[in-house]
Amino acid sequence: MTMVIEQVMPSLFWLILAFQFLHRVTGNAEGDALNALKTNLADPNNILQSWDPTLVNPCTWFHVTCNSQNSVTRIDLGDANLSGQLVSQLGQLSNLQYLRLNNNSLSGTIPMLLTTIPSLQVLDLSNNKLVGDVPVNGSFSLFTPISFVTKSLKIGTIIILARINYNCDKTYVGN
Ligand SMILES: *[C@@H]1O[C@H](CO)[C@@H](O)[C@H](O)[C@H]1NC(C)=O
Ligand SMILES: *[C@@H]1O[C@H](CO)[C@@H](O)[C@H](O)[C@H]1NC(C)=O
Ligand SMILES: *[C@@H]1O[C@H](CO)[C@@H](O)[C@H](O)[C@H]1NC(C)=O
Questions:
Q1: Can you tell me the distance from the alpha carbon of 95 to that of 63, in angstroms, rounded to the nearest whole number?
Q2: Is the alpha carbon torsion for 141, 143, 144, 150 positive or negative?
Q3: Atom number in ligand 2 closest to CA 78
Q4: Atom of ligand 2 nearest to the CA of 81
């Protein structure tokens, strides 16, 4: 009996240590980034109720999709009655491919750090109250030029574009 415990304990110790390490580098970082978004938004319909930052990772949260490595690939929050501002922490979602936030009341600017997500494929920010410049560098440089109809969003104006789905590598829909 003692023999068995002595054999099992060290590997159990390393397993727990490895798990805590993984938890810290993958799960928490992306969960924290999304939680930063949540705390920055007003959510009258409680769409983000399942976004519990104490969970190991955000992969079980509603409106969030992960890959097999438990890294976030999709955020689907269109038509969610959300208001408030986007957060630069979204730039930490390094495997994000699809970010849909259309038809809300988001204000403020598009975080420049979104340009640092190389995997970003579809970005739909249409029908919001965003202002300022649309980034053109980094991952945004590969969005189709025709989708940048409103390159410089004038402060105070709401420019509404129809939802556009281009048959190309990347899609950006501004407001
Ligand atoms: C959005 O929230 C407001 C309250 O803030 C509410 O009056 C309205 O009905 C909501 N719209 C939808 C589509 O849920
Ligand atoms: C936006 O949401 C409203 C309800 O809040 C809905 O009536 C409208 O059709 C939506 N618009 C688009 C473009 O999805
Ligand atoms: C794009 O430019 C902005 C400044 O305008 C900068 O903050 C951001 O890091 C740049 N992105 C990349 C991928 O270089």
A1: 16
A2: negative
A3: 14
A4: 5
